[in-house]
Design a protein that fits this description.
Elements lengths: L2 H10 L3 H13 L4 H21 L5 H18 L12 E8 L6 H12 L2 E10 L1 H11 L3 E5 L7 H12 L7 E5 L5 H7 L3 E2 L3 H12 L1
Parallel strand pairs: 1-2, 1-3, 3-4, 4-5
The structure holds CO-5-methoxybenzimidazolylcobamide.
């Protein structure tokens, strides 16, 4: 097995100590940092995304894989000029106003970061005006909103309305997710997409930005 395939396997199995060691070894052997990221770390994380979507991997395993990926990236970051760091696009994310649930959102963040997105994570209990300010300050291509409570779902619509009022709606795609959310709710409030899980959210953003 090549070093790249080995590194992918270490990410898939969530072996962060192994992923760190092998990444360092590959750096010491003069392998291009971007090749290590694309052919080793990201290749592994792409498999994780597919398996998670298929129900063959579960939340704790995905978190271990994301950690393995991050330990490798941390070693490589200083070796790569910012402009060369692969980025799949910028996503502003938060859990909506009144809602404190963040485990799912954090999983979406980890999966997206591992897939090369630049993430601005606003946190939880984010009011529409704060999302609007985030769009003005960070100019993301996508806003991702999470809600776990039926009572906080309307805050997603309020946020879309606030973007419209500020004339920002056409400058950004809006995607939503969380246990009570559905595609029909996304259609109803005029969101650009819905994702049932972290892997699907990553695919959705990739497709919307492409
Ligand atoms: Co809360 N809670 N909770 N809770 N909680 C639920 C959601 C609930 C279903 C439990 C129940 O009654 N069976 C219920 C909601 C009922 C409803 O609205 N219909 C509920 C309630 C009622 C409450 C409180 C009101 C309880 C109370 O105080 N009386 C309160 C509300 C607080 C508030 O938010 N204002 C509350 C509080 C809490 C805790 C603080 C104790 C804790 C949260 C800790 C934290 O997040 N830091 C908590 C938890 C842990 C849960 C359960 C048990 C688990 C949620 C979770 O983390 N799931 C939950 C019951 C359950 O789901 N079994 C429950 C794991 C996570 C990986 O899945 O979040 O669905 P999930 O994320 C998935 C997808 O949904 C998707 O991807 C993720 C990964 O695949 N996804 C996105 C999520 N966000 C996305 C965004 C995207 C795309 C995909 O953007 C594009």
């Amino acid at each position: 097995m090549s070093n790249f395939a080995n590194l992918s396997e270490l990410v898939i199995s969530g072996n962060y100590a192994g992923a760190k060691d092998l990444t360092q070894k590959m750096i010491d052997n003069g392998i291009e940092p971007l090749e290590i990221i694309n052919q080793g770390l990201m290749a592994g994380m792409n498999v994780v995304g597919v398996r998670f979507k298929a129900g063959d991997m579960f939340v704790p395993e995905v978190m271990m894989s994301a950690r393995a990926m991050s330990t490798g990236i941390e070693l490589l970051k200083p070796l790569i000029a910012d402009k060369d760091m692969p980025t799949a696009g910028k996503v502003l994310i938060g859990t909506v106003k009144g809602d404190l649930h963040d485990i799912g959102k954090n999983l979406v963040v980890m999966m997206m970061e591992s897939a090369g997105f630049e993430i601005v994570d606003l946190g939880v209990d984010i009011a529409p005006a704060v999302f609007v300010k985030g769009v003005k300050d960070h100019k993301p291509q996508v806003i991702a909103m999470s809600a776990l409570l039926t009572t906080t779902m309307p805050a997603m619509k309020d946020t879309i309305e606030a973007l419209k009022e500020e004339g920002l709606r056409d400058s950004v795609k809006v995607v939503i997710g969380g246990a009570p959310i559905s595609q029909s709710f996304a259609n109803e409030i005029g969101a650009d997409g819905y994702a049932p899980d972290a892997a699907a959210a990553t695919d959705l953003c990739r497709n919307l930005i492409a």
